[in-house]
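From the shared-data thread, chain only:
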Amino acid sequence: MDAFSIVDGDTRGQIGPGIERFVDYWANRREPGGRPPLLSSIKRYELAAQASSLVLFDAERRDDHGYRFRCREMGARHLDFSGTDLTGKLLEDVFAEDDARFFSNIYWGVLTTGRPHYWRRPSAISGREFETYERVIAPVDDPNHPLGTLIGLWQWTPLGAAEGEDNRPARRTAGGIPSIRRGGNRPPTYRLIVEAGQFPLAKDCAFEPLALKSTDTFVETLRPVLEPIWRGLATHRAPAGTQEIALIEPSLDVSVRAGLDAVPLDRFDRFVDALRPRLEELRAAIAGARANNS
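Structure, as tokens:
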């Protein structure tokens, strides 16, 4: 499972075996040099029941020179669970503008890194908040879509069913993305989103209040989300106007911005050290907002 680029959401439970089988299947069909597999090499019948939960997205150019994603195909089982047919639709047709941009940035990051992206989250579908889902999305090559194609697998289960918890709804944040469930005897879990302007490097991760006890602990907790951002900025030419990154905790409505002009990109440790004052500012803001909401 080391092929995952980042794990987000409530991941303390075991990753579903169907997700693991899908990633192993994808990895075993990669082209020489570790390039993504050809879409034509993905045989639906070899994936058995998972095939009806697959979704295909194709990248397209936007008028503002950015990128957007259109659903080419949506499996029948996914449609049964979600209740919304995405076939032929852009993310912008289904989600709020901010959410569509966030998802598009993650999808573009999968294409640029060539690595799958996984998360587990409570459902954002109205009336289905009692469920949670696992999602993994991976790049594939299709000559008919040279900008890039993604294949994804969604798996749905009742929220907390594996652990015998009650099925109270997840709390929602602005834009329709639910925050991590704050129920039962578990401590609350918070999310951090990192965005680099319109540059497609959005990443996010989850952390618990224990991570807020010191700046050192907070920085170490955020390394899995900061490293892909640093690598992307260091290896890809950012478009003009990308002069800062935003660090956001959406459920508490807390954010800080860090200018990139003086931030070194030659080494990850120097990148983190330069951001340290902003990370401390964010840690203090999250801790303060958490105390006010208690």
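The helical segments are 17-27, 76-82, 91-94, 97-113, 215-235, 268-293.
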